[in-house]
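Predict the 3D structure for this chain.
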Amino acid sequence: MRNTTRLVSLFGALTLVAAACSGSATPTPAAPSAAAPSAAASVAASMAPSAAPAASPSSTGLTGNLTIWQAYTASETTAFNQILQNVEAANPGLTVTNLTVPFANLFTKFETSAASSGVPDLFIAPADSLPKEARAGLLVDLTSLVPQLSNYAAAAIQGDTVDGKLYAIPESQKGIALMYNTSLLPTPPATTADWLKDASKLGWVYGSASGGAYYGWGIYSAFGGTILDPTTGKCSATANSGVADALTWLQQAKAAGMHMYQSDVPAVADLSTGKIAGFIEGPWQAAALEKALGSNLAVAPGPTGPKGAFAPLVEPDGYYINKNSANVDLATQFALQLDSLANEQIFADQGGHIPAINGITYTAPNNPYPAISQGFANAYKTGFARPTVKYLDNYWTPFGNAIQSVIDKGTAPADAVATACQQMDKANGF
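Done. Predicted structure below.
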């Protein structure tokens, strides 16, 4: 049976950008690396087996008591409850206490509780605090499960890996792409040159306090730019022209009439009312935009540039197992059942998720806006796995300020990037 207790229901629609600098109730962007994600198989091969929990349920099904924390509301709650019902029906000896915790408190509450008790047995959340909690010894090393997860997106596996070990079972993925109104923009701009031609119809979120460095990340790769030297850990943006070229492109786009926003709140409003035809945003705003635009809302990848595809950061949500739980094996087996293909299809259809597992279909009538889900899934194929290295914890503020300075003050992009690199390296102890 399930014992569902609502502590607080404040999760709502995620607003990713606010957390980039403030740590608010959103999936905070963190340390991207300089290397593209490898295939899941190669990730598995590089990970030595560990003393992780067994992953096969007993012949009589799962038996025992578990507590899980999550931060869902609205359609996500409906989908998650259905998934829980499915798992409980298949395991009559299992009792699950399902607690809703406000996202703003989820990680700190877990860190406090897990350090002194075995509660919760597991929780589901984005990878915001995964590196911190893994390095603090609060999470179970799940590396031995990697061979069983070969049907998962490589970016999701990488995003839940810290220091070469897997610390979560991926559930879904989040990232950004072009969300646009087909009645105003029948053909979405595909390249950076196309974006300049359509600049007066488009918007861009650049505010340093609202995740400008997050929204800007995908455009670096379009100009061949990187942020981190994978060997030394130092900022590599001044060693190549790509990042400065990307910021130059943003200046050109502004000059061509592109609407520049300090946060995504006014951008969503303007897209909803037809003031703009599109901007780069994530699925956390899909519900509001679907309500406003209906079937006119569509999703396409961000702009491909002269040196590569738009590569937005892709972050997984995942199931995290409390290392101090008295039920580690049970919690792990439970998470794997929650994450089955059939259950993830429910999350895709009813909860608006882009599952990390392959084989999901996005079709009507179960999914009312299948093109939106499929659009994000397609955009994530060129995504950049949200890494968990420490050095880029100090990326966000310097480069957020650099982007804002370039847009608001007309600072030379090369100078802004050089300053940001110096600040980042100093903060990292170089």
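DSSP finds 16 helices and 15 strands in the chain.
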